[in-house]
Design a protein that fits this description.
It comes from Adineta steineri. This is VCBS repeat-containing protein. The structure is a single chain. The protein is built from no helices and 29 strands. By secondary structure, it is an all-beta fold. It has one domain: Methylamine Dehydrogenase, Chain H (7 Propeller), CATH 2.130.10. The protein has a four-stranded antiparallel β-sheet, with no helix packed on it. A four-stranded antiparallel β-sheet has the order 5-6-7-10, with no helix packed on it. A hairpin with an 8-residue loop joins strand 11 and strand 12.
Length: 327
């Protein structure tokens, strides 16, 4: 039951591989890229209970991509270090908040080592675990953000060269922006989006060199776009219709026009929606593509080396990965 997917080269052959979080089997699966957009069968590694998300980065500075899962039912993170050729060590677990739903890897304290930020669905706080330097992490530090935190993203939202945190709150229809004050403290502002936001991402949608926010609101079948005013504040949302129950959202330039587009995984429609960017941070109506059953995650990467981004979904209902190669 794949619940989340990322696409990244884990065996250093310059071909992006697929890494999934398998919710019911308590594993992460690695599917190595054969080279033409097809993949070897997955190799599975044990993680905590019900992994809900997966992230990949070099966390121990050995130039190999490591794996971190957020384990929803054991209230832990699992860290698996890459031991070479796309194989991984046994997991090390770290406690976090209740029902960790999403995690991301980013350098929060400017020491050139990726730290972990976790959205805890069953707690009112996010967890931050700082990288100690050898692939191990500190005990979590908690920051109150609000209840039902389903997703987290990190970017410098106000141009002060400090990474800020963005969270999605499924029960309150709010996106929270936590601006980094530089001394391990954050100031929080909430913004209204659609109903039940399950996913959030950031990207410069209107080419003004400021990261904007996109959230997927599952109960209103919309994405919300919040354009950055320049100081880390955001005006009212603009919404766009997508498929039924969008559970995940990604931003990437799909049609090679140097403008980032929006892609959602629509859980109740078994589809993805692609919204092409008009060029000023507004978007054309969706184009819909069929994928496997109950897609809950989406990633974008060129998996067949043709210089065109492809779409990959994790389909929990059909226990499959869908790969849509761009024509």
């Amino acid at each position: 039951m794949p619940h989340a997917v990322v696409v990244v080269d884990v065996n250093d052959d310059n071909k992006p591989d697929i890494v999934v979080a398998n919710h019911k089997s308590n594993t992460t699966g690695v599917l190595l890229n054969i080279g033409n957009g097809t993949f070897f069968p997955q190799v599975s590694y044990s993680v905590g209970k019900f992994p809900a998300s997966v992230a990949v980065a070099d966390i121990n500075s050995d130039n190999k991509s490591d794996i971190v899962t957020a384990d929803w039912n054991s209230n832990t993170l699992s860290v698996l270090l890459n031991i070479g050729n796309g194989t991984f060590s046994s997991r090390t677990n770290y406690p976090v908040g209740v029902m960790p739903r999403s995690g991301t890897l980013v350098d929060l304290n400017s020491d050139n080592q990726p730290d972990i930020v976790v959205a805890n669905q069953g707690a009112v706080f996010i967890s931050v675990l700082l990288n100690i330097g050898n692939g191990t992490f500190s005990t979590q530090t908690s920051y109150v953000v609000g209840s039902a935190t389903y997703a987290v993203a990190v970017a410098d939202m106000n141009g002060d060269n400090k990474p800020d945190i963005v969270t999605a709150h499924g029960a309150s229809n709010i996106i929270s922006v936590l601006l980094n004050k530089g001394n391990s403290t954050f100031s929080l502002t909430g913004y209204v989006v659609g109903v039940a936001p399950m996913s959030v991402t950031v990207g410069d949608l209107n080419n003004d060199n400021k990261p904007d926010i996109v959230s997927a609101s599952s109960a209103s079948n919309t994405v919300s776009v919040l354009l950055n005013t320049g100081n880390g504040t955001f005006p009212l949302q603009v919404t766009y219709l997508v498929g039924a129950f969008p559970y995940a959202v990604a931003v990437a330039d799909i049609n090679s026009d140097n403008k980032p587009d929006i892609v959602t995984a629509n859980m109740n429609a078994n589809t993805v929606s692609v919204l092409l960017n008009k060029g000023n941070g507004t978007f054309f109506p969706q184009t819909i593509y069929a994928v496997g059953g109950v897609p809950q995650s989406v990633a974008i990467a060129d998996v067949n080396s043709d210089n065109k981004p492809d779409i990959i979904t994790a389909n929990s209902g059909s226990h499959t990965i869908s790969v849509l190669l761009q024509c």
